[in-house]
Amino acid sequence: MLDVGDGTVLYWEEWGHPEGVPALYLHGGPGGGLGTSLYRRRFDLGRTRVIGLEQRGCGRSTPHASDPTTSLAGNTTGQLLDDVERLRDHLGITSWVVNGASWGSTLALAYARAHPERVRGLVLFAVTTTSRAEVDWITEGVGAVFPEAWDRLAAHAEGAGIGYRRGEGRLVEAYSRLMESPDPAVRDEASLEWALWEDTHVSIGAGGLHRDPRWDDPRFRHAFVRLTTHYWSHEGFCDPPLLSDVEALRGIPAVLIHGRRDISSPVVTAWRLHRSWPGSRLVVDEGDGHGGASMAERWRAANDELLALSGV
What we know:
Elements lengths: L1 E4 L2 E3 L1 E5 L4 E6 L21 E6 L23 H15 L4 E6 L1 H12 L4 E7 L6 H8 L7 H12 L12 H8 L5 H18 L16 H16 L20 E6 L8 H8 L4 E6 L7 H17 L3
Parallel strand pairs: 4-5, 4-6, 6-7, 7-8, 8-9
Antiparallel strand pairs: 1-2, 3-5
């Protein structure tokens, strides 16, 4: 546990060889946490010193976003980047390979842009930049593919008495307001509807609709939905947008891994990033969606590739 001030204490963990190449893993969500730490399997632990961090507000870090009294006012991407730097300094690491999955890829890109001298290389999995267009697609546009599920999601917000009407406001902002309600029943119902939408839009490429067992934990579910809608309502607090400013990334080796069947985060974002970033390599997995066994194998291979570049 690392005390970073302002009442925030962050959970971190370490796997692998203490003298190996340092590597940081940034989890998805926002609010996804490290779970059972299966990310460690994407690294050669005999040659790598792997560090995982649970971002503020989720997992075992405190205070927890599931508590409505926990303010999110200071929970921004800029603050998360400061937290990463606090951890790096605490561990005495000069630079590291940075891995990010889904939302974690946004955070990894933002970190590399802010601190390029600290990044040996990047492995981005299910690439996102949390732009306005990406958020509007995943919360509105993809409803063209799942009209029944999107109608249910929108109808819940319309019937919640917060003044939302489809076509007149952003659905993600409506759910962010619902998750700030003082009524625990309102928060719980909104989190369940959002969880069902999450399961739906990742179902293509994942073998169909399956309920994520993590939703059975209301503490996890409330924090995840509250943090996700908070960050997505503000385009990930990335200013300027990540795709508009990649100059700092030049010279940093990177592997971008994305599933062709990822309907919630179409491959065009990874493609545009790759096209504007000399030195990056794009790997499109034709069979997977927003993750999967084949993509996971490519993830492990990408880390081996960056280890080779480090002379290990």
